[in-house]
Design brief:
heterodimer; A: 332 residues; mainly alpha; MetI-like fold; globular; B: 559 residues; alpha/beta; Rossmann fold; 2 domains; 6-stranded mixed β-sheet
Chain lengths: 332, 559
């Protein structure tokens, strides 16, 4: 019987392997995009020589495999490269550590922090809310409350994100201006102010992710209510709330943890639309802008961050599920 | 006359199926005094469990009490509000379920679950309840009573769990305990130990109990009075001794008679006849865990070899090796003296055809979406190459062989058949391949005794007609007595004893065989008392097996 430490190490190794494979896929996919950076900035009237010169400067004339190995090598040393858009071409040639230019890492870091902040605020609101609602819906299943919560969450998950965002803006910023509709946050803001400005996008995202988590919590608990040990608990005269919290919930943790982590990963990677609506300076906007001008180093770095977020979250889900299982925590 | 504790009058319970309410219990009366043990027996579907739960004022989802009266100590349990019933459950009425493994919450330690009821009801403090639970563990002879409560359910054996559950029921000192088939899922050697523990503790604490089971011999040990149920109605009720001595109703008599079916043993196989199937020094493992250790056995044409042993003894694994589902680490399987390829993948169609299987759970072994005709027709087509009208004729022939009307059942789905009928379809499917050897893996253990006997008679007749060889895997010695020619006793992956049936049932025995035989309850109220007096509490169940293992491993070199 493998110990928990072994299982976790094995999962970790698999996660790293997955990340490596994903890096190949990202690299190939990004390079398969039609057009390139030189073409994009020089426009229609560019001479082939000018395009060629820039391509050479940026190393785009090298074979694909060479570029991949270079990229991977630098990345392993923590160097995400320099954004094409930031490169000073006159002095760029041949040097990666260009003085004065902003590196991709420097460009991404504040954006990524903002995205994590938004995801964090959303998670703090959405996770307890949806698990709590799920438990209550399971407790009062079939009741008006249960149906109401179900309908409300289905409506919110079925509506497009921008629509939810505008509805919230209408009610909370326009008709009844309690929250700002623009989330233009910047360095040096106090935490409170930052939180205040982030609240509206966070609420929008809460509406988006709550339904999924809440329904899974409810389903996972109700699934167990037919188990013999639940019947036993009832026959011991245990009240319905304790039956759910003490007897059902601990056994329903694995699926609940899974759906929570998937939604958290989504919050890190998939919130472009909400960022655009609220002009929130997160990583999603940067990503879209970079794709538009074929700024390959930034696109690749973003993709890698997204992939890593998914893999890490899944890893966390796996490990927590294992830890929630007494058979694995306490082998015979 | 003792004070009456439970009174049930004309109780009617209905169950919902196909959007209609069907009666499950049709007007049963029941009386129970303080300190009295009532045995409820009947076949599956007789409404025993439903009645037992109704005594607690509880019905499962999809059931309802449609009429009648349940009064526990003067409290109307049918109409009492939920909080009143909740207050009684666990505190004054407790329940012990059939499968302790499923009825303990896997996420919590035993002690926390055992003390939950009295603590939540506020009748004891946590430390008081824990003390009492530990005292009960000790009285129920659980090993290491101080520490066992800190284990999780998966960390203790089935027999120990069942006793822990009895302790859980008794912690709050209830007036009434409902035992719902508490030993049915256990091996015989474990069963006797649990029975002894339950009986002692019920007698000592003067608790009243309803003991639900389908096993007459078990109920004879436990109950003061016996009530027989059939399809939701009472057949008869009497005190245990007079019920056993002189049952009044025909149905009760038929229940008593079931164990009388016995085939005459066939004469011994002549020397030098080569066996149909031979296992030669087979060793098999699951991963690194050894399950079969160097076993050899022969099975001759037209004979039944019963393989007996408790769960985990390697019986089914031996079957998996013969069918090629599991490749052995060492040793080989011979068919007619010719070695078979180890894996079924490498065996030809003719090899596959000659060895067939019938499974314990007919429910899961039949595709629920195929008609009976298709299920039986598939091997007919696959092995025999028959199609169209010929195939249909052959399927009809097979159905006549298993005593089922082809016209009536051909187009039905397995879900529409009873358990015994499904098992017959399983037999027909095996016969369709025209095999010479059939492995019967616990084929009767999920069936009621009357139905099981029908299956055994059918298998015996088919053997006489078709000259089949059976390997009959079972843990039930009554079945062995009924059908076997030879018996192989297995324990922990080894054959401890093998030989003709007559010899096996007569002393001297291997100590393990002795233990198995003496653990089978007999239809006599004093059997348990007698066995306990003869052997002592440390010579039954797990303790006896542990002792036997010790003496084996320390092994006497002079033997």
């Amino acid at each position: 019987m493998a110990s928990i430490g072994n299982i976790i190490l094995r999962r970790l190794a698999l996660g790293i392997l997955t990340l490596f494979i994903v890096s190949i896929v990202i690299f190939l996919a990004v390079n398969a995009l039609p057009g390139d950076f030189a073409q994009a900035i020089l426009g229609q009237g560019a001479t082939p020589e000018a395009v060629e010169a820039i391509r050479r400067d940026l190393g785009l004339d090298q074979p694909l495999a060479t570029r991949y190995v270079q990229w991977l090598w630098r990345m392993l040393h923590g160097d995400l490269g320099i954004s094409f858009a930031q490169a000073n071409f006159a002095s760029y040639v041949g040097s990666a550590s260009d003085a004065g230019a902003v590196t991709v890492a420097e460009q991404l870091a504040p954006r990524f922090r903002n995205t994590l902040f938004l995801a964090g605020v959303t998670a703090v609101i959405a996770v307890p809310l949806s698990v709590g609602l799920g438990i209550l819906a399971a407790l009062y299943r079939g009741s008006v409350f249960d149906r109401g919560v179900n309908i409300f969450s289905l409506v919110s998950i079925s509506s497009p994100e921008f629509f939810l965002a505008y509805v919230l803006i209408l009610f909370l910023a326009v008709l009844d201006p309690v929250l700002p509709s623009l989330s233009n946050i910047y360095e040096g803001m106090s935490f409170g102010e930052r939180l205040f400005k982030t609240l509206l996008p966070a609420l929008t995202l809460t509406l988006v992710v709550t339904a999924h988590m809440m329904r899974m919590t409810r389903a996972a608990i109700i699934n167990l209510l037919a188990s013999p040990y639940i019947e036993m608990a009832r026959l011991k005269g245990i009240g319905p709330l304790r039956v759910i919290l003490w007897h059902a919930l601990p056994n329903a943790l694995a699926p609940i943890i899974n759906v929570i982590t998937i939604n958290l990963a989504y919050l890190v990677t998939g919130v472009v639309v909400v960022e655009v609506v609220f002009v929130y300076p997160g990583i999603g906007q940067l990503f879209v802008d970079s794709v538009k001008i074929r700024d390959i180093p930034v696109v690749q770095a973003c993709c890698l961050i997204f992939a890593a977020a998914y893999i890490l979250m899944n890893l966390a889900a796996d490990i927590l599920s294992i830890l929630s299982n007494p058979r694995l925590r306490h082998p015979k | 006359m003792k004070e009456r504790l439970l009174k049930i009058r004309d109780l009617r319970i209905e169950g919902l199926s196909d959007e209609q309410w069907w009666p499950i219990v049709r007007g049963v009366d029941l009386d129970l005094s303080r300190g009295e043990v009532l045995g409820l027996i009947g076949e599956s579907g007789a409404g025993k469990s439903t009645l037992g739960l109704a005594a607690m004022g509880y019905t499962r989802d999809g059931c309802r009490i449609s009429g009648g009266l349940v009064e526990f100590d003067g409290i109307d349990m049918v109409h009492a509000p939920a909080h009143v019933k909740r207050d009684l459950l666990g505190r004054r009425i407790a329940y012990v379920a059939q499968s302790a493994a499923a009825s303990f919450n896997p996420a919590h330690r035993l002690l926390g679950q055992c003390t939950e009821s009295p603590v939540q009801h506020g009748v004891m403090s946590r430390s008081e309840a824990e003390e009492r639970a530990i005292a009960l563990y000790e009285r129920l002879r659980l090993p290491d009573p101080q520490q066992i409560g800190f284990r999780y359910p998966h960390q203790v054996s089935g027999g120990q769990l069942q006793r822990a559950m009895t302790a859980m029921a008794m912690v709050a000192k209830p007036d009434l305990i409902i035992f719902d088939e508490p030993t049915t899922a256990l091996d015989v050697t474990t069963q006797i130990e649990v029975l002894a523990a339950i009986r002692d503790i019920v007698q000592q604490s003067g608790t009243a109990a309803i003991y639900i089971t389908h096993d007459l011999a078990v109920v004879a040990q436990m109950a003061d009075r016996i009530k027989v149920l059939l399809r939701g109605e009472e057949v008869e009720e009497a005190d245990t001794r007079s019920m056993l001595a002189s049952p009044r109703e025909d149905y009760t008599k038929s229940l008593w008679a079931v164990r009388s079916f016995q085939r005459p043993a066939k004469p011994a196989v002549a020397q030098g006849v080569s066996p149909l199937i031979r296992l030669e020094k087979v060793t098999a493992t699951y991963g690194q865990v050894p399950v079969l250790k160097d076993i050899s056995l022969d099975i001759h044409s037209g004979r039944t070899v019963a393989v007996v042993g408790e769960s985990g003894s390697g019986k089914s694994t031996a079957a998996r090796v013969i069918t090629g589902l599991l490749t052995p680490r060492a040793g080989r399987v011979l068919l007619d003296g010719v070695p078979l390829p180890a894996s079924y993948r490498d065996r030809g169609k003719d090899h596959l055809r000659q060895i067939q299987m019938i499974y314990q759970m007919a429910d899961t072994a039949l595709n629920p979406r195929c008609t009976i005709g298709d299920i039986i027709g598939r091997p007919v087509e696959f092995y025999m190459g028959l199609t169209g009208r010929e195939k249909r004729r052959r399927v009809e022939e097979l159905m006549v062989q298993i005593e089922m009307e082809p016209g009536e059942y051909m187009n039905r789905l397995p879900g529409e058949l009873s358990g015994g009928q499904k098992q017959r379809i399983g037999i027909a499917r095996a016969l369709a391949a025209e095999p010479r050897f059939i492995i019967c893996d616990e084929v009767t253990s999920a069936l009621d005794q009357l139905v099981a006997e029908g299956i055994l008679r059918l298998l015996a007749r088919l053997q006489d007609e078709l000259g089949l060889a059976y390997m009959f895997i079972t843990h039930d010695l009554a079945t062995v007595r009924a059908i076997a020619d030879e018996v192989v006793v297995m324990k922990e992956g080894r054959v401890v004893e093998a030989g003709p049936k007559d010899r096996m049932f007569h002393p001297p025995h291997h100590p393990y065989t002795e233990l198995l035989l003496s653990s089978v309850p007999e239809m006599e109220p004093d059997w348990l008392t007698r066995v306990l007096e003869a052997r002592g509490p440390s010579e039954i169940g797990e303790a006896a097996i542990a002792k036997m293992n010790n003496s084996e491993s320390s092994g006497s070199p002079d033997a």
